[in-house]
Amino acid sequence: xVDGVNDANKRMRMNVKELYVxxxxxxxxxxxxxxxxTLTATSGSFPTPNGxxxxxxxxxPTVTELQEFCVEINAKVNAIIDALEGAGISASS
Length: 93
Fold this sequence. Notes:
Elements: E1 3-6, E2 12-15, E3 19-21, E4 24-27, H1 63-86
């Protein structure tokens, strides 16, 4: 059973427990909050993420290159978490 209400902008708002399309479950209960991934250092600092990583020699990456890689992955993971929260898939608190 669907409880739907049309608003003035012709959008349909539905209150459903689960949403299926052609037998495929698209939505259900909201997942619990996923905490952001946090990087900490006891000394020094990590580079600022800028969206790219360059490794001079893939067979022997430097510590600095690996740190930059970790920082970039951290930024991407947190962006995915933010997107899941923004879409209501994951709780935001």
